[in-house]
Design goal:
It is a single chain. 80% of the residues lie in helices and 0% in strands. The protein is mainly α. The protein has 2 domains: 80 residues, no CATH class; 74 residues. Helix 5 runs antiparallel to helix 6. The N terminus is likely disordered.
Length: 220
């Protein structure tokens, strides 16, 4: 008897399944078509993105090559090369867009256009879509160019977050803050900071060497 009821139950489930398939065949077909369409669209987008990245990479390398070739030109001529990086910054994918803005800013700074360079560094630093490492680098570069005459309170406010132990630019930020202290006549504070940097084995060699040299010049 158990076997008979099992067979009847299976037949009823099969019949119900067929009825459901007939009733919702259009919906099921539409969903299947949508899934296939989404998969195809995703693959197409990835292909298009790869082409965009490749094109941006080629353009960026070409612009960098031109800038390096023109390294012997006067600063104004080098500054004119920024147009290629400006074009990339306007239409390249995010990574190359950020790198292009940083390179264009450097060229502007070399050409004496500190206001234009600072504006680009500020753009990168405020861009939430940019890599945090590059955003912090933009802030550091901005501060380095402002350290001699920029507003001390603003410089300190922007450099302090970069001194976090986990920040890749912490040693450079500490160096700039020490220079800022020296500029303001806080010699003891500056010397203490330079001593820490000179002994910091995690700091880049260049930072340690500069700290040691400045301590020597300060007679500390």
């Amino acid at each position: 008897m158990v076997d008979i009821f099992d067979e009847v139950d299976e037949e009823l489930r099969a019949e119900k399944t067929q009825q459901l398939l007939k009733r919702y065949s259009g919906v099921i077909g539409g969903v299947a078509f949508a899934i296939v369409g989404v998969a195809a669209g995703w693959q197409g987008w990835q292909w298009w993105q790869a082409r965009q990245d490749a094109a941006a990479a080629s353009a960026f390398v070409a612009a960098m090559s031109s800038a390096e070739t023109a390294a012997t030109l006067d600063p104004t001529a080098r500054g004119a090369l920024g147009g290629a990086f400006d074009a990339l910054a306007a239409g390249a994918p995010e990574g190359y867009k950020t790198l292009s803005r940083l390179r264009a800013a450097a060229l502007k700074a070399d050409a004496g256009d500190l206001a234009g360079a600072a504006a680009l560094w500020d753009q990168v630093a405020a861009d939430g879509a940019a890599d945090p490492l590059l955003r912090d680098l933009a802030t550091l570069l901005w501060a380095q160019r402002q350290i001699d005459q920029g507003d001390p309170a603003r410089l300190e406010a922007r450099l302090k977050p970069l001194t976090d132990p986990d920040n890749a630019w912490r040693a450079f930020a500490k160096e700039q803050l020490a220079l800022l202290a020296l500029r303001q006549g806080h010699t003891d504070e500056a010397q203490a900071s330079f001593r820490v940097l000179a002994r910091d084995v995690t700091a880049p060699t260049g930072v340690r060497n500069r700290a040691t040299a400045l301590l020597s010049r300060l007679g500390a």
